[in-house]
From TrEMBL:
An annotated Gene Ontology molecular function: serine-type endopeptidase activity
Record GO biological process: protein processing
Domain Peptidase S1: 37-276
Protein name, per record: chymotrypsin
Principal location class: secreted
Subcellular location: Secreted, Extracellular space
Record-annotated membrane-spanning stretches: 6-22
Amino acid sequence: MLGHFFYFLILSIILFAFLLRFPDLGLPSVGSTVARINGGENALPGEFPYQISLQINYVGHKSHSCGGSILNENWVLTAAHCVYQISQHAKTYVLSGKHSIYRIERTQQENRVEKIVVHENYSGKIGPNDIALLKLQSPLIFNEHVQPIDLPSKNSEVEGEVILSGWGAVHSHGRDTPDILQKATLTTIGLDVCNKAVEKYGDTKVVSSNICTGPITGGISACQGDSGGPLIKEKNGKAQLVGIVSWGVVPCGLVGAPSVYTKVSSYIDWIENVMNES
């Protein structure tokens, strides 16, 4: 299976160059999730200073694969499926301070990943515990374009409007990756509604450690390339990281299909334990 993965990856690099993507998790009966915000709009420079681009270098070419969020100078939070099968021979980088994904920018910082910690109960498939921490080789330098994001209170719930950002695909089949960071305002939906919406695409269930967003009327959703990136809730004028883009249905933004996230508040103890012990 791993050999097939490398074969696909090398072919993708040769044929598609800048369009290289690791497949996000999706419902098997429909396809993989793709990573750009379908139905989003351009973010302003520096609007999401905690947003990073996770980039992998296998054969001399480095390109965006997933998003992530800065927790402090040394640690970044992302989805487990983004890093679960990265080869020991690959070089993994966190690029912060980015607005354009294709251009070198004076605001950007590039840091090599020293250590990857995947949640011990992540199965490698669609499901719970899709969360991972990345320890950087050297600390980030904070400024107006590179900042950490606050975590929510342990086991707190999320309701109402939330904001998604990322460089995921902007069209439903996930083939067009934007140059400029995208954003979209979404609304959370209950887990009962979410499960009823996804059950027609397969037997995967959302659980209490997930968050779901609509609108299930279609048109706006996370897409391929958004994986691992932040879903935030503004509280008292400050952003809190409430979700990590986990999985969804392709075509992105399909009527009746929500986007599914790892609920960060369910993993506060795990996050703190990993960072304190490493």
